[in-house]
Write a structure and sequence with these properties.
By secondary structure, the protein is mainly β. It contains 1 helix and 8 strands. Helices cover about 5% and strands about 40% of the residues.
Length: about 140
Amino acid sequence: MPTTVSAPARPRQRPDVEQLQGAWATIAGRRQVRLLVAGSRFAFEFLDGEGGIYIGSFKVSGDGHPRPLDMHIEEGPDDHRGQTAMCIYHLDADILRWCPSRPGAKARLTSFPSVDDDKYLSLVFKHVRPQRKTPDAV
C-alpha cells in the first residue's frame, strides 16, 4: 500500500483586525501622527500640534485592494465629531499604508494618492513594538 504524504499546513494568516492592534507611528506622509488601536477602538493624534486627537471605533468593511476601513469619530474636533471617515488601507507585515476620505464624505478612494499630495492625508505607518527589557549587567 503506497504511503501518502500530505503537504505541510500553511500558517494561518491573522485577521487584519488582529494585525492592526497596538501602536503605529508615521514613517512617510506630510503629517506626523501616532495611531493607537485596541480591539475595535482607535486613538489618532497629530503630533505637530495642529489637528488634535481623534478617538472612536472602526471596522474593516470588506475585501479588495486596497482594503476598506470605516473610522467613526466619537471624540475630536467639532466639525468631525459624529462622522465616519471612509478609509483605505494596506497591511504588509509591520507597515500600514492608510488614507481616509474627508470625514462625512460619501465616497471612498479606490487607490492610494502620493504621500506628498496636499489634497489627501495619505500616510505610511510602522508598527511600534515594545522594546524588551534586558537584565542589568552585573
